[in-house]
Design a protein that fits this description.
10 helices; four-stranded mixed β-sheet; alpha/beta; 60s Ribosomal Protein L30, Chain: A
Length: 350
């Protein structure tokens, strides 16, 4: 009985102890786990929240704001740069238009052996001459001798450097920096004819914008004995390096006037006794049959549009050049050449 009671009591006590221990241990473990989870959850939550807040402030907010500010500054700069560039272009165009109204052409260059040689012969102001240092051309040696005799600075350059400086792409080994071309007055052209004892003969160019055409007409006019050329200040090419090169030096010997209003100038020429003849493919007078011995100004229009309406209405006669092919018009420079040399034949009794 005692052993059994002892065993039972001991078993009960052991069981109770184990159960109490298990319960306590379970409670402690549970509490520990719960506390750990709560603590861990709080820490994780705090860390995540802090990270999210920091990320939102740093990445989303600050980065977006910084990006937007930078982008706005960039766009603003680009817009401002565009506006500045656009303003410069507008001002440059304005300057170009204003320069066309001036008495002189912008200072520039002349290129080519004949062009530079004629400029030297005509006593035009030349600031400097550039020569190809590797060239053995005797014409360049002659230009060098004349330039040095006149006290003009001469520089020898590589051909590649001259190619870079060239505006015509055909400098022939010589480029010269020259003073602006001085235009004359219409009265100077009339005075020249009077001094030569001849009835005036001149060209009026209406809307010639191709420098090659203008250069060719200047060269033809000088060779045919034309006393001068009149250009409008608007809708016309000026005496550029290309024009001078194509003219092959003729511009140095040909008086050229620029006027604001061609129609008014034509009327003034009429008042002095000149006849005005317009070259027109629809003209009613064959250019070969016309009498060029009287005081005369011949109007040459552009290839695309011909003579402008007001100028055409102010012409006394319209000259036509017969066409025998399928094309019904000529290059402006060719038309001017045909009329110029037909006039030269009559005026010189050929």
């Amino acid at each position: 009985m005692r052993r059994k009671d002892y065993k039972r009591a001991d078993s009960k006590d052991s069981s109770r102890g184990r159960d109490d221990y298990k319960r306590a241990d379970s409670k402690e473990s549970s509490r520990g786990r719960d506390d750990y989870k709560k603590t861990n959850n709080k820490d994780s939550g705090r860390r995540r929240n802090d990270y999210d807040r920091a990320d939102n402030r740093g990445n989303s907010g600050r980065r977006r704001n910084d990006y937007n500010r930078a982008d706005n500054r960039g766009n603003s700069r680009r817009r401002n740069d565009y506006r500045r560039t656009d303003n410069v272009n507008i001002n440059d165009n304005k300057y170009l238009y204003e320069s066309q109204d001036s008495e002189y052409e912008d200072s520039g260059k002349i290129e080519g052996k004949n062009t530079v040689f004629e400029a030297l012969s005509a006593e035009r102001q030349i600031n400097r001459v550039y020569l190809d240092k590797d060239s053995k051309d005797q014409a360049l040696a002659r230009i060098y001798a004349i330039a040095r005799e006149k006290g003009i600075v001469v520089s020898y350059l590589d051909k590649s450097k001259l190619d870079t400086m060239s505006e015509t792409r055909n400098h022939q080994g010589v480029i010269a920096e020259v003073a602006p071309y001085a235009y004359v007055e219409v009265e100077d052209i009339l005075k020249r004819a009077e001094d030569m004892g001849q009835p005036p003969f001149m060209f009026i160019l209406d809307g010639i914008t191709d420098p090659n055409n203008l250069g060719s007409i200047i060269r033809t006019a000088e060779c045919a004995g034309v006393h001068g050329i009149i250009l409008p200040k608007r809708r016309s090419v000026g005496l550029t390096a290309v024009v001078a090169k194509v003219a092959a030096g003729a511009a140095e010997h040909m008086p050229i006037a620029r006027v604001t209003n061609l129609s008014r100038t034509i009327q003034e020429l009429k008042d002095t006794g000149l006849w005005i003849a317009g070259a027109d493919m629809a003209g009613d007078t064959d250019y070969v049959k016309y009498d060029y011995k009287s005081p005369l100004a011949v109007v040459i229009g552009s290839e695309g549009e011909g003579i402008s309406r007001l100028v055409r209405e102010n012409c006394d006669i319209h000259l036509s050049i017969p066409m025998y092919g399928k094309i019904n018009s000529l290059n402006a420079a060719v038309a001017a050449a045909l009329i110029a040399f037909r006039a030269a034949e009559q005026r010189n009794g050929v």
